Amino acid sequence: MRSKAVMVAIIVLFSMWYVGLWGSEVTAEPGFFSEKCAGCHTNDSATCDGCHSHGVWQDSSRTTVNLTATTDLDRYQPGQTVSVTFSGGYRYGWIRAILFDENGLEIDRVTGPTGMGDDGTGDPSLQFPVMLSAPAPSEPGFYTWSASWFGSPFDKDNSTVFPHTSQNVLTNEFEVFLPPTDLTQIDLVSPADLAVVTSPPTFTWAADGGANNKFAVDVSASPGFATYYSTYEDLGLMIGTNSWTMPLSVWNKVPVGVQLYWRVRGVDLNHTPRTIITSTGSRRFTRQ
Fold first, then answer.
1. Radius of gyration of the chain (CA)
2. β-sheet with 106-110: strand ranges across
3. Deepest of 77, 93, 192, 204, by most Cβ within 10 A of its Cβ?
4. pLDDT digits (tens, 9 = 90+) for 214-223
């Protein structure tokens, strides 16, 4: 019994030492905000990521800067919105994030209501991952932007707080391209070839150009479309978007278990002479 009591006492003492050791480390860094930052950030929530040690490093070893800035797409048309996900840090709290274009000019900024901190809101949009965005350049080409963490340079064993500094990271390279001015190609998107559908399908496609496009969806029992049912000839529709959902009245006439073919025809009404473009190939679907 005595040895058991001694063992329990040792475990308790070790637990107290362990919790005290790690508790001091966990609470020490947040304490830095009160000591070093609260004098200016009087109404802001305490932040760990707002300091260099936590906001830009991968972990407490501070050996790898883990800031990343990634665009949502690889290709954009001029003026199309480029959204950048800016990630980093390894603790919590608000940061100031800035997006720069290929010339180093600021094009977006995420910061608090008064331009610093978060005014005590705890706003998640000011915390990693931060979303930044701006219109794509007007000229075609390949571009690389950059995103910047801005905050206190404070690190362990470094009590320097002013002036505030930035840490930049490049985005991935992306392309800006001009779409063709003429409608020259239509690609089928969905349903996939050989799809088995159980309800009225939505047909979608992509067009490579055109200013005033109108489309027709054709369905046939033969791959050569010797005869076919068309949204234009049979329904009198000129579809102005890149999708069409089959009405229930038409769906009820589709035979079950029969493989059917579909394609899309399109024309740019602004083009002279008007030229009908047929989709590259056709696809098959079967009603279950």
1. 30
2. 106-110, 96-100, 146-151, 165-170
3. 93
4. 999 999 999 9
Structure tokens given for 74: 């690889």
Are 197 and 256 a contacting pair, CB within 8 Å?
no
Q: Report how far residue 275's alpha carbon sits from residue 119's, in angstroms, rounded to the nearest whole number.
A: 60
Strands (E), 65-193: 68-71, 75-76, 81-87, 96-100, 106-110, 130-135, 141-143, 146-151, 165-170, 174-176, 186-190
Q: What is the pLDDT of residues 146-157, one digit of tens each?
A: 999 999 988 866
How far apart CA 108 and CA 98 sit, in angstroms, is: 6
The token pair at 284 is 């098959």
Output the CA–CA distances (angstroms, integers) from residue 9 to 1, 4, 22, in the order listed.
12, 9, 20
First and final CA of the chain: distance in angstroms? Answer: 75
161 pLDDT band (50/70/90 cuts)? Answer: low
Instruction: Say what the pTM is.
Output: 0.59
pLDDT average, residue stretch 232-240: 97
- Letter string b/e over residues 126-160, b meaning 16 or more CB atoms within 10 A of that residue's CB: bbbbbebebebbeeeeebebbbbbbbbbbbeeeee
